[in-house]
Amino acid sequence: MKFDKEISHPIHPHHKLKLEYTEIPFNCDGCKEAGIGLKYKCLRCEFDLHKACAVARPRITHPFYNKCDFQLHYTPPGGARRRCDACRNEVLGFVYHCRRCDFDLHPCCANLPQVLQDDDGRAFYLCLKLSGACHCCGGKGPGWSYRSDCRAYNLHVSCVKELLVESWQAMYLNVDKNKVREIQTRIPSLKGTLQNHHHGGRGGKVRKCCEIAGGAVRIIVSAILGDPTALIGAVVGGFMSK
């Protein structure tokens, strides 16, 4: 899909925004969420928009909520605090809101693909609810997740975002450098988890699922926050044990 290299946007009407690619994390001035990869940037101001926020359509539907009519709001509607029903983060800016059902989605979350495939054709499915424990947090709490087609691997969208944002803050905001290592080792060994899941099974099946899980982390990161980079590769390296 082609995108305009330069656009105007109503929340930043005085200057044009230019499409660019960045490997440095940024905070979107639309939805207030983290991003990386393609963005629209004002070259005269410190103003950035996710590609998904910059070109967000006024109204959308979503297959998870087939009775909903989502309308784009530049500020959260109503006076109460709102949370995105996909990633469970608080809504602080751009949001798709269904007035009738009271559901909310960040533009980037609303655009998450239903199916992701790696280079080998393995599939990861976007799920409204977890069918098994999230490998990162160990819980089955609310929020969307991606599940491998072998059903051995589940990961909350919210957990991916939290780990990456905290790691970026540690790397770019001059906080304690040990924070990066702490974040990378916070979750249990994925390899060990999968071996327990397939206890008594054939070794080839275990190896296959470990390979699937390693690919899942990278492809899910790409879908949620942008293009995978060397930085992301280092951050998600903690998901796998050698």
How would you concisely characterize the structure shown here?
The chain is α+β, with helices and mostly antiparallel strands and about 240 residues long.
Strand order of the largest sheet: 1-2-3-4
Low-pLDDT stretches are 179-212, 227-242
The ordered H/E elements are EEEEHEEEEHEEEEHHHHH
Gyration radius over CA: 19 Å
Helix content: 25-40%
End-to-end Cα distance, whole Å, is: 38 Å
Number of structurally distinct domains: 3
**Strand content of the residues, in percent?**
25-35%
- List the total number of helices: 7
Q: How does the helix and strand content classify structurally?
A: alpha+beta
Largest sheet: 4 strands, antiparallel
Number of β-strand runs: 12
Instruction: Assign an overall shape.
Output: globular
InterPro entries: C1-like_sf (IPR046349), DC1 (IPR004146), PKC_DAG/PE (IPR002219)
GO molecular function, one term: metal ion binding
Domain Phorbol-ester/DAG-type: 14-68
Organism: Morus notabilis
Structural overview:
This protein is an alpha+beta fold. The chain folds into three domains: 6-54, Wheat Germ Agglutinin (Isolectin 2), domain 1 (2-Layer Sandwich), CATH 3.30.60; 59-110, Wheat Germ Agglutinin (Isolectin 2), domain 1 (2-Layer Sandwich), CATH 3.30.60; 115-239, no CATH class. Helix content is 29%, strand content 28%. It is built from seven helices and twelve strands. It has helices spanning 51-54, 107-110, 157-172, 178-184, 190-197, 203-225, 230-236, and strands at 6-9, 12-27, 34-42, 47-50, 59-62, 65-73, 95-98, 104-105, 115-117, 123-127, 145-148, 154-156. Strands 1-2-3-4 form a four-stranded antiparallel beta sheet. Strands 5-6-7-8 form a four-stranded antiparallel beta sheet. Strand 7 and strand 8 form a beta hairpin. Helix 3 runs antiparallel to helix 4 (178-184). The longest helix is centred in the C-terminal third of the chain and has 23 residues, at 203-225. It is globular, with a radius of gyration of 19 Å. The chain starts with 5 loop residues before the first strand and ends in a 6-residue tail after the last helix.
